[in-house]
Specification:
There is one protein chain. By secondary structure, the chain is mainly α. It has a domain of 82 residues: Up-down Bundle (Growth Hormone, Chain: A). 62% of the residues lie in helices and 0% in strands. The chain is built from five helices and no strands.
């Protein structure tokens, strides 16, 4: 079957595919929108709790279990669609769960958090569909079963956790965006 030849193929071979290019363009816009929503939540955390500078919070961070999802497969010279897209999907799932902390921290902005969660689920679904269309291996995650919101020893720890969740998520999105943009330019 021709799609088996694409399994693990370098993206140079995929870059000329018009459907793939359309997927990239649409999801670049989607990723840009998600980044904007995360930035808006970061501004709210900064304005509400005066938590604006990461370097000032590093000591507190050491006491907290903060999610950080690397995208090292999206940086490598041997970049392959399957591994990068799989890491993006896994990261979106992790951060989607982490947003429960943000929703608890910023109840007045629950609508924005819910929109962000929906957008993240849609982006993950788009990536999964594209991977299936290309014949790449995908992971099907179980249906949504919300993890409980973590408990924090102090309200300040919850606020700092929210700050770092958003900061880490923003970096994750920037890397995912750069990977998609690079693919679109090939």
């Amino acid at each position: 079957a021709p799609w088996q030849a694409l399994h693990g193929a370098p993206l140079m071979e995929l870059s000329g595919d018009q459907d793939f290019q359309l997927f990239l363009q649409r999801n670049l816009e989607f990723t840009r929108k998600i980044r904007g929503d995360v930035a808006a939540l970061q501004r709210v955390v900064c304005d509400t709790f005066q938590l604006c500078k990461e370097d000032e919070l590093q000591l507190v961070r050491q006491d907290l279990d903060i999610t950080h999802v690397p995208l090292e497969q999206c940086h490598k010279r041997t970049f392959q669609a399957e591994t990068c897209f799989s890491q993006i999907r896994a990261g979106l799932r992790v951060y989607q769960g982490s947003l429960a902390t943000i929703q608890a921290l910023l109840p007045m902005h629950a609508g924005l958090v819910e929109t962000l969660q929906l957008d993240m689920a849609n982006l993950s679904s788009n990536i999964q569909q594209q991977m299936e269309d290309l014949g790449l291996a995908t992971v099907t995650y179980p249906s949504e079963n919300q993890d409980p919101v973590p408990t924090f020893s102090t309200q300040f720890h919850q606020q700092v956790s929210g700050f770092f969740i958003l900061a880490n998520f923003q970096r994750f999105l920037e890397t995912a965006y750069r990977a998609l943009r690079h693919l679109a330019s090939l």
